[in-house]
Amino acid sequence: MGVNTIHWFRKGLRLHDNPSLRDSIRGADTLRCIYILDPWFAGSSNVGINRWRFLLHCLEDLDASLRKLNSRLFVIRGQPTDVFPRLFKEWQINRLSYEYDSEPFGKERDAAIQKLANEAAVEVMVQISHTLYDLDKIIELNGGQPPLTYKRFQALINRMDAVELPAETITCEVIKKCATPIGDDHDDKFGVPSLEELGFETEGLTTAVWPGGETEALMRLERHLERKAWVANFERPRMNANSLLASPTGLSPYLRFGCLSCRLFYFKLSDLYRKVKKNSTPPLSLYGQLLWREFFYTTATNNPCFDKMDGNPVCVQIPWDRNPEALAKWAEGRTGFPWIDAIMSQLRQEGWIHHLARHAVACFLTRGDLWISWEEGMKVFEELLLDADWSVNAGSWMWLSCSSFFQQFFHCYCPVGFGRRTDPNGDYIRRYLPILRAYPAKYIYDPWNAPEEVQKAAKCIIGVHYPKPMVNHAEASRINIERMKQIYQQLSCYRGLGLLATVPANPTNGPSGSNVTGVNTGTSQGPGGSSEEQYVQEGTSRTGTQQLLHLISFHVLFTFEETSSITFLKTCFIPRVFKKR
Amino acid sequence: MKRALPMNEQEDGGGTNGGSQQTLKRPCKQRRERDLEENRACWECLPQEILLHIFQYLPLLDRAYASQVCRGWNQAFHMPELWRCFEFELNQPASSYLKATHPDLIKQIIKRHADHLQYVSFKVDSSRESAEAACDILSRLVNCSLKTLGLISTARPSFMELPKSHFISALTVVFVNSKSLSSLKIDDTPVDDPSLKVLVANNSDTLKLLKMSSCPHVSPAGILCVADQCHGLRELALNYHLLSDELLIALSSEKHVHLEHLRIDVVSENPGQQFHTIKKSSWDAMVRHSPKFNLVMYFFLYEEEFGPFFRDEIPVTHLYFGRSVSKDVLGRVGLTCPRLVELVVCANGLRPLDEELIRIAQRCTQLSAIGLGECEVSCSAFVEFVKMCGDRLTQLSIMEEVLVPDHRYGLDDIHWEVSKHLGRVWFPDMMPTW
């Protein structure tokens, strides 16, 4: 009996650096690469047209690449737990491979499939290639808990073994004699569907600004590296008006879908750096984008409640407002603040916005102006944003709303000022909000302040052709900073006057709350220096999550901020709610 | 849970039906006698004071379940000492994610423990119903003498949506009946001058803390009345429009105790709003009278509205700029705020604040906390700043984008330099780059 194998594509939609696929092929007689379209899989029900289109592009690209290897992609509709038993039988499968999925739902789904595979005597081959590291090892290194600050995460990364090299690309040489049985009706039964077939209205749909697929991803990688080499500067580029627009070297959606291997990107960046900077060691900041992604994957992997506030041990319980009307205005770009509306408009049209634009709209929705829960914003991004996967999206929203990760909340992005400072001329607004095109730069960020003549001349009366601002920003931000302060004072049991000290101190510190003492000034190696080690070891006694839990579980009454001398009832603990069971 | 809520128990205690009470008694007595014989500690002998002490450590829900164990524990559960303070959380499911205090619990508290309450706060969400419910409870607190009352909005200020008279009449119930109010927190409420007069008439001897930021119906005369009569006032929070020279003089009068904290919110309703000035002599009087007092100021102004501010020396200790503030104003801060302890700048813009920061390091010798948001500072100037402040900087919260690399320092080594001068490991605040 020969070896008949299935490789199950979920993310990792590529043939380069695909170790589970490579392992699967070794010694196999037949190979079938499948993609299961599971519309009921958690999260995918809330997917907009741009995301579907990107995915379909990826699948088409995979199919085209597989054709060159005398193989094809098999797209199968249904739920994995229904699909697999059928396939195991029909195709006489005895081997199954897939890329490791670190997300809680992924792990649960894969555990169920593993069970089915065991029952059908199917060998399962899993390899890690969606993240740089084995996330469980990072967690182990941190005493069994995921790191709760990015700094701590970086310190742990420094202590990990080197990133594994990308696996060799699947070529004809790799496949050798492994064949794929392709029927004449393959396109009908297993072909990649079109947007129309999935039920989308495609009339008037503009060309994708972000075309999906591995081929496109690899091309972009080359362009991205070329640009970096040409600039010979690996610093984070200064933000300017141009940065807001979609870049032909942007890589985040390709990393999310796995069209581009993060490890390939990592090694290419390292090689380029060494070449340009004459063999010096690359700093961690070079891999910023990749490490943030890794950080959120690590924090999320063991936390199925990561995308909620309720029941999420790393999330501060903030009394957000429920306001569907206000939420809709934000989601649909009708807030009356051109900066916010233009960003949401670009997001809806193209599926990508610059990370500072994300900060602006996230702040506006949550702690800045509307005081609406980050969970709502996360759902909107999930629908519209190409590079938002579960862990990164939820983690980023918690970060941006100051709901976790010990973030300072004092800096509030002004929906007028921030935009104006980024793009003083207002071209971005004119591009994505054509109704305001004729406004002069002076008033384009706050058109409600424009005198009547100006509004008339621009043929756009505020309140008629474009909404009035939905909040008074000064008032809203004043109220909200106070709310955040109330919450954090309760959380940290802080009794002082300062605003900065209300955010609980670095969780790696000991119970005394003082910072790590002593910096070894002898070594000056930068991030890899010895005081980082000290920094890491300190925390293993009282880890981040535990400390946060400890703080949350005590709810002290009366944290009127300036009551340091007039304290009440230090010993009286009252729970937040009396829950009816 | 099939067990009935503790709040539905019978008057004679226990959650079980009456019929089984007889059968419970005998085994208890036998057990107790046996325990006494064997010199074992028995639960029933636990003095109530100890039980009370233990119960104080339990969250309310656990205490409630404990109260169902036996009559003794039920009595302990209802002892006045356990009902001195309570926080009513009033939320509507349609407008909040958080659960509200159970209505049955509220009923029980009002029925059995209203007289025991001394420290009470109301947390309301943004719905009007929640604010109304709070007022409803307030107006029933007729027989309790509250020491502390807090009306806290956790989202939009819903107390402001109530009809003013409705709110005032509920609040005055407490003012009139308590007569020993020490702390009062009524920010974002429609409290007015006459109700403040009632407050003063009944509580002038005991009032120590009054927080009433953003109470638009109060006038400077209204707050002046409070300052004149309540000589024990130690902490005050209000908006700038209520601040006057007379108020500061009143707070510095001989009869007045030392003021500890004064918080002022300077908020602009519309761009181009004009603000009055406070004489330097008034501030000087305050400092002379209360040398250790803390002045906390929150500014939410448009850039062009800072004209009247930071012209003369002002004893501010904690300064927060909630909107963009110009380089010029930050320069003036360095010159006029010698007592500055904490400075937080939400945004400034794209011109480096090098000189301004250095000046602040030089002149504000008490500075121990600084936070910079959307600003720019060159790395060299920043290192200079940290060097000058040294390890008195306990809070240094700088967004990563603030630091502009120059010929001496890049982003990768700046944190090392800064850590050296601070004497601890330091990194700038980061935001995810997705």
TrEMBL record, chain A:
Signal peptide: none annotated. Residues 3-132 form the Photolyase/cryptochrome alpha/beta domain. Binds 1 FAD per subunit. FAD binds at residues 289-296, 387-389. The record marks 320, 374, 397 as: Electron transfer via tryptophanyl radical. Its cofactor is (6R)-5,10-methylene-5,6,7,8-tetrahydrofolate; FAD. One of its GO terms (cellular component) is cytoplasm. It is found in: Cytoplasm; Nucleus. InterPro entries: Crypto/Photolyase_FAD-like_sf, Crypto/Photolyase_N_sf, Cryptochr/Photolyase_FAD-bd, Cryptochrome/DNA_photolyase_1, DNA_photolyase_N, Rossmann-like_a/b/a_fold. This is Cryptochrome-1. The lineage of its organism: Eukaryota, Metazoa, Chordata, Craniata, Vertebrata.
UniProtKB/TrEMBL annotation, chain B:
SMART domains: FBOX (SM00256). GO terms for biological process: regulation of circadian rhythm; rhythmic process. Pathway: Protein modification; protein ubiquitination. Coiled coil: none annotated. InterPro entries: F-box-like_dom_sf, F-box_dom, LRR_dom_sf. It is found in: Cytoplasm; Nucleus. Keywords: Biological rhythms, Cytoplasm, Leucine-rich repeat, Nucleus, Repeat, Ubl conjugation pathway. Residues 40-86 form the F-box domain. Gene3D superfamilies: 1.20.1280.50, Ribonuclease Inhibitor. Residues 1-30 are annotated as: Disordered. One of its GO terms (cellular component) is mitochondrion. This is F-box/LRR-repeat protein 3-like. It comes from Echeneis naucrates (Live sharksucker).
